[in-house]
Design a protein that fits this description.
alpha+beta; nine-stranded mixed beta sheet; 2 domains; Endonuclease, Chain A; about 600 residues; globular; about 20% strand; 21 strands
């Protein structure tokens, strides 16, 4: 079969591309059309940027730093509205340059406000570079054609375009899965924005409504840092490596975008569309630098050294087993843990190296406490990944010593601003059960059906706190895909006050009102050991997991009790078992999860 695929793939790719082939000369012609259309006019020459105490933090941090004693300013961006406000304000405050790197850039309100502000910055003389992963980056050939011919100060590139297209049709995507599997899976997952090479925003958020509390059904609990100081120079070098890589192509070199440019003999015209009220409000708020600083300054920390670790495009050259800086840095931080590790990840699927390291930590004479905050099935946007996590709960709890807390879809301490979602409060009062919104979705990136309606929240933050000394935030999910396929970036902040604030943020997410506690099922005297042994044997099978009785389940704190850790005396008196998949409506999605738990272990490296 492998030989057949190897012999047949050139023919298959030829057939897939036959209807969409654009010659080299046509691509050159498209590039000429785009280049000749790009304006050179600058609409403002003096005092063009908004005043910004936030951006001035960069100059202050550089002035306070020495080569041996760097100083930085860090703002913890937990709230989605704060994270969008910081981005839009910094873009409006930019004086020289903006570099934005993202995995996902959507054509919704959040995407529109960011893109409009980037274009406005270019028109006032700021050099703008926008680098997006092709799979989820404004997959609209006409829009990309307009951006290609917009202005000399605005440049767009797409990373690793499959079949050299801005947008793949279903047949092309299927062909990529079969014949270009490795290339398809090599994605640029980094998320970073640099302004004037002095201030950066880095973390887990893409440019899409649900990362900024603007989706009326599902939003992400995510986290970014705004960082001012010398570490931004390392971030700049990493961005340049991606920008100049052979995989990063201007849109005019993509077949479908080139056809648009050739057919129109330049970028197509567009009609102005009215902005939503919340976009207008965000733009107005972002223009007041003093108010923005006042809103974000409670989360501002003056710190010393910050380390940046970013994969480079060459990570993919030696195959999926090559080691990379971001993953090595995380493993190094893990191994240095002495007392307590707090880990927050949306997808609890550990690589082999991570499992081995945690096993060594757990076997220490005085092992550190490892507390993990992750998604429940009811909260996740990726149920196949949750299924793999579900398969290994016994290993995580017993052999690695994890304390696991799974985020609820409707946390009591909801970390989003419902007022930012148009009509959300009124609509939810009369909303049908959520399965009517989501039933029938075949996507693994859609939430599962629930028993009740509401604006659902799912974890997307990727953070770690080591001994309340080091705080880590970035795009790395601590999983095999982040290790072996995606490129990632992260920062390590060496400061106790910041680390404590980050730890408090994660601990808030694992409070009983916000997360279920995962613990072993209460033992039955006769059957518990037999069930444990059979479950352990089944779990170790490379593909099949045939034992239907899981080792652990979800627990809810009983009224009148105080939170205690699993394994502590009195745990089962104070906690009530609420089932393996609480809040989930028992539809096909729940069955799918069981099936994937049984059959899906072989897919762990790419989930």
């Amino acid at each position: 079969m492998t030989a057949l695929l190897r012999r047949g793939w050139p023919v298959a790719l030829l057939l897939l591309g036959a209807c969409s082939h654009v010659s080299r000369n046509e691509r050159l012609q498209a590039g000429d059309y785009a280049e000749s259309a790009r304006s050179t006019e600058v609409g403002c020459t003096t005092d063009c940027a908004v005043a910004s105490p936030l951006l001035n933090l960069g100059d202050a941090a550089f002035a306070e730093s020495t080569p041996t004693a760097p100083r930085h300013k860090v703002v913890l961006l937990d709230g989605g509205q704060d994270a969008l406000l910081a981005r839009v304000h910094l873009i409006r405050a930019a004086r020289r340059s903006i570099d934005l790197q993202t995995f996902h850039f959507e054509k919704d309100d959040a995407g529109r406000v960011v893109l409009d502000e980037l274009r406005a910055a270019a028109l006032r003389g700021v050099k703008v570079r926008l680098l997006m992963d092709q799979l989820n980056g404004l997959a609209d050939p006409e829009l990309q054609a307009r951006l290609a011919g917009f202005h000399r100060n605005f440049e767009l590139r797409l990373y690793n375009p499959v079949f050299d297209q801005a947008k793949m049709n279903p047949l092309e995507f299927a062909g990529a899965v079969v014949f270009r599997f490795r290339s398809l899976n090599q994605r640029m997952h980094n998320k970073m924005m640099l302004v004037d090479d002095r201030v950066a925003v880095i973390g887990g958020r893409n440019v899409q409504d649900e990362y900024f509390d603007w989706n009326d059904q599902y939003n992400y609990r995510d986290r970014d840092l705004m960082i001012a100081g010398p570490v931004t120079l390392s971030m700049k070098r990493n961005f340049d490596a991606f920008w100049n890589d052979r995989r990063a192509l201007p849109p005019s070199q993509l077949g479908d975008v080139a056809r648009v440019l050739i057919q129109n003999k330049g970028p197509p015209e567009s009609s102005a569309k009215p902005r939503s009220a919340r976009v207008e409000r965000m733009i107005a708020d972002a223009g007041d630098g003093g108010a923005v600083y006042g809103r974000l300054s409670p989360y501002l920390y003056a710190v010393g050294p910050i380390d940046f670790f970013g994969d480079v495009p060459g990570k993919h050259d030696d195959g999926p087993k090559s080691r990379v800086d971001a993953s090595e840095a995380l493993l190094g931080a893990l191994s240095a843990t002495r007392n307590q590790l707090l880990l927050q990840t949306p997808y609890l699927v550990m690589s082999r190296q991570a499992r081995q390291l945690f096993r060594r930590l757990h076997k220490r004479e005085a092992p550190p406490t490892v507390i993990v905050s992750t998604n429940s099935l009811a909260a996740t946007d990726a149920f196949p990944v949750y299924a793999m996590s579900h398969k290994y709960k016994r290993l995580y709890l017993r052999e690695l010593g994890f304390q696991i807390y799974e985020y609820k879809p409707f946390p009591a301490d909801m970390p989003i601003d419902l007022a930012a979602v148009p009509g959300a409060v009124e609509a939810l009062a009369a909303a049908p059960p959520i399965e009517e919104h989501w039933a029938g979705s075949g996507s693994s990136h859609r939430p599962v059906p629930l028993k009740r309606a509401g604006v659902r929240i799912g974890l997307h933050s990727k953070s770690m706190v080591v001994d309340e000394r080091i705080g880590i935030v970035g795009s790395h999910n601590f999983d095999p895909r982040s290790n072996d396929y995606n490129t990632e970036s992260l920062v390590m902040v060496h400061d106790e006050a910041f680390a404590k604030a980050l730890a408090d943020s994660i601990r808030r997410d694992i409070e009983p009102g916000n997360s279920w506690t995962i613990a072993p099922k209460e033992k039955l005297p006769v059957l518990s050991q037999l069930n444990y042994n059979l479950g352990k044997f089944s779990e170790k099978l490379p593909i099949f997991d045939v034992w239907p009785l899981p080792y652990a389940t979800s627990y809810e704190l009983k009224p009148g009790c105080q939170p205690i850790a699993p394994g502590a005396p009195g745990f089962y008196q104070c906690y009530e078992a609420v089932g393996d998949f609480p809040e989930v409506n028992l539809t096909l999605k729940s069955v799918y999860t069981r099936v994937l738990t049984v059959f899906g272990a072989g897919f762990i490296p790419i989930l």
